[in-house]
Structures are given as C-alpha cells and as structure tokens.
Amino acid sequence: MSDELKKCREQIDSIDDQMLKLVSERARLAHEIGMLKNGGPIYRPEREAQVLRRLLSQNDGPLPEASVTAIFRTVMSHCRALEKELAVAFLGPLGTYSEEAANKQFGGVSSPVQCASFDEVFRTVEAGQADYAVVPVENSTEGAVGRTLDLLVQTSLKICGEVELPVHHNLLSKSDLSSIRKIYSHAQSLGQCHEWLNRNMSGIERIAVASNAEATRLAAEEPGTAAVASKRAGELFGLNLLAEHIEDDPRNTTRFLILSNHDVAPSGKDKTSLVMATRNVPGAVVQLLSPLAENGVSMTKLESRPLYTGMWEYVFFVDIEGHRDDEKVAKALAELEARAAFVKILGSYPVAVV
Ligand SMILES: C=C(O[C@@H]1C=C(C(=O)O)C=C[C@H]1O)C(=O)O
C-alpha cells in the first residue's frame, strides 16, 4: 500500500469515527423529540423536507443532490425508527416502482405491507393496518393514474407528501431475445415503452398484468416470455437484462403520493391538492377557478375525470401552490367552497425534494 493511500484511509477512518459519534448524538435527540410528541405522529414530512432543503442549499459537491438526499433520508429513517417503525403499504410484490418510491421517500421501509391493488393500499391504511400508503398518481409520459384519482375522491386519508421517481424500464427474461413471444408488464409501463416495443419487438404479444413485479414473476416461470420492469424486479426474480432504458422518454418520471390519517404542517414550500365538481352551467369551471387567480394563488395542475354518476359529468383535480393554512390560500379555498357544488381538500404537503 502506498503511503499516500494509507494516509487517505487513516483520514477516512477518523472521519467515520466522528460521523458515528455525530449520528449517534443525532439519534439521541430524535428519540428525545419522539417523547415530546406525546402520541402525535412520529413522521413529520414537513420537517424532513426542511432538513433536506437546508442541506441541499449548502451542498457544494462532489456528491450530487440525489446522493445527499438519499444519505440523509436513510439517517432520518433510522432516527425515526428509534421512535417507531412505520408500516408502509404499496402495490406489491417487492420490486414494483411503488416499492422504490416508498424506499426513496422513507429512506428505506422496515415494515413494508405489500398489497395486491391500489384499492387494497387505500383500504389497508384506512383500516389502520399500516401507517402510510404510497400510490402513483401521474406519469410524465402516460398522464394520470385513473384508479388512484377515483380512490382519492372517496378516501378518508389525506395526502401528506409527494415523491418523484425517475422511471427506467428494462426488458427482462430468462430466455434469449430471439425466442421471446410474449411480453408482460403493467399497462402504464407498456405505454411508456410503446415506441421502443414497436421498433424492436414488433408483432410480439403484449399482455397487461397487475404490476411490473407480477410481470417479472410470470416471465420467470414461463419460457419464451419477457417482462418490462425495473432492474431490481429482475434481480429479485433471477431474470437477465435483455435491454435497458427502453422507456420512450429518458426523463420518464412518475409522481407518487404519500397518504395517511393525519394532516401536515407547512414546510415553507408546499402544495395543496383538491377535487371539486361544478354545477353544469356555462362558464362554471372558469367561475369556479377564479378565486385562485383573484387571490394570487398559482394552479400547478388541472385534471378532469369522468363521474360514474352520469354521462359527461366530471370532477376536477386541482393542485395549487401553498399550504391551506397560508392566508391567501385559505381565503381562495373559502371562496371556492362557496361556489362549487362539491369540494374536497385532499391535503397540503411539502413539494417533492430531489
Ligand atoms: C426527529 C424528528 O422526528 C422524525 C425524524 C426527523 C429527523 O431525523 O430529522 C425529522 C422529522 C420526523 O420525521 C422530528 O420531528 O424532528
């Protein structure tokens, strides 16, 4: 070993010693805070977002932003676990993008609750069998996840966070590329790889199944089939990587929501999501939204979804900047509630951190 290398390693050892001391000290403080919470929620997404934003504003490299947040989310997860281990429900089995999103947001999930459908994810948390739900709500290529929107209308749960996950798809199989006759995946993922599949796997049957991980499980069992899924799913089921990054848009990103039974305090950079319906009269939508503009509240999303109760009737999903406790947001919401046939505030929560 060269002297130079030995010296650097000694320095790393000494830094590690200091880091361990500091992390332990941090964990002791988090535990103390846990006692002060007096039975209130342990997980405080607004505080975690503030911790991460503050650190990012000081980060001069060499670690990229996503590395800094991943490290500190893991630290916070372990500090939190001294207070309580959170049970987090998501669409299973292990290896889904939902699992990846849950791991990203919570810095690792020690008590995962794998559900068979989005309906079950909601029900599990509503019934108190898990503390948090993680569900996809929209994708940059494919748009809204309809079932999640429908469930949001009915649920008693509140949105308490959002997480954005860059989604890279892969073609995975135990067979050779030339022998593939069927491709399994979730419908959303097939849509996100539509052009690549047309170009490279034309004429080969595509079959939509409940999740990407389920697709991987099927492909592992059936020779001559492949799955479109994450690398992690492929590893879990022992599949080989036939092609990577097959998504049509390399920036392909899915936004997930975190849901729970509690509200979240303002973090300083928040979003509020609501769903509403208007009376079916001319100009109703414009009229309904005007309190936002009048109070200087920016709308970041407007999505319509058909109502099952009638033909050509819709509900509107709206995201606005700010927390419902912010003065101008509160005023705009009060005016909006007075005009709409139906309004439900789905939650105020911190804007996603890298
Ligand atoms: C320590 C706390 O509890 C949890 C852990 C946090 C942390 O480790 O920084 C931050 C917020 C909470 O999710 C706290 O509320 O401050």
Automatic annotation (TrEMBL):
SUPFAM superfamilies the record matches: ACT-like (SSF55021), Chorismate mutase II (SSF48600), Periplasmic binding protein-like II (SSF53850)
Keywords: Amino-acid biosynthesis, Aromatic amino acid biosynthesis, Cytoplasm, Isomerase, Lyase, Multifunctional enzyme, Phenylalanine biosynthesis
Domain of life: Bacteria
Span of domain Prephenate dehydratase: 87-261
Coiled-coil positions: none
EC number(s) per entry: 4.2.1.51, 5.4.99.5
Localization of this protein: Cytoplasm
Residues annotated as site: Essential for prephenate dehydratase activity: T254
Main location: cytoplasm
GO cellular component, one term: cytoplasm
The protein's role, per its UniProt record: Catalyzes the Claisen rearrangement of chorismate to prephenate and the decarboxylation/dehydration of prephenate to phenylpyruvate.
PANTHER family, A to Z: PREPHENATE DEHYDRATASE P PROTEIN, PREPHENATE DEHYDRATASE-RELATED
Entry protein name: Bifunctional chorismate mutase/prephenate dehydratase
Species of origin: Novimethylophilus kurashikiensis
